[in-house]
Amino acid sequence: MPDSRTPSRPLLAAHGLAFSRDETPVFGPLDFSVDAGEALLVQGGNGAGKTTLLRVLAGLLRAEAGRVEIDGLPARPASRARHIAYLGHLPGLKADLSALRNLDYLCGLHGRRARQTPEAAMAIVGLGGFEDAPLRTLSAGQKKRLGLARQWLSPAPLWLLDEPYANLDLDGIQLVNRMVEAHLREGGAALITTHGAYAAPPVRTRLLELKRPAA
Ligand SMILES: Nc1ncnc2c1ncn2[C@@H]1O[C@H](COP(=O)(O)OP(=O)(O)OP(=O)(O)O)[C@@H](O)[C@H]1O
Questions:
Q1: In the CATH scheme, what architecture does the domain 12-209 have?
Q2: Which residues line ligand 1 (CB under 6 A)?
């Protein structure tokens, strides 16, 4: 993974970041940062604004106030595209393509991590043998695993993982944690939303507690 960052700059920083919908505050103002090699666990109950925060960080929603910096510079579409890999509730996969063709397609669009292949990533997430299965025939947990394979293949250092443990069995939860651990060891960082700390990966972790602000 190319790394031109100086160690003193966080990979991601938010300053006074706030978001409202129809003048109703959803979150913020928030200040936080994540360094390479760290995970930020974003905790909060249903509706606390976790997904909304990740979508703002990914540039899919516009913040009402504050700013986001990537690698010490204001976040721009090009820097977000280069630095961020986002695993959302809808993994952005095509229902009629096979599992493997989905990964090939996404690698063609976004590039892939050095020395990794879609076939190897499918084996890592426990989907060996499902290469030719049309995506629509996979279970929710298998789709989540395919999303994790896509995440693993991405060359982007900053992972935004929205409820990565949802739909996964115990083995899948441990898989997420192993992947996050390996990604951080290689100099990446991860923001992970969760309802509770029950499944946090064994890595250097900061905590961001989200509570809906008073209107
Ligand atoms: N597209 C939308 N239009 C209007 N309101 C929305 C939309 N998406 C989310 N909201 C509202 O914004 C608030 C925050 O939602 P968000 O999905 O960010 O919460 P969350 O913490 O991720 O919740 P959960 O744990 O249930 O997934 C909620 O009150 C929700 O109803």
A1: 3-Layer(aba) Sandwich (3.40)
A2: 21, 26, 44, 46-52, 195
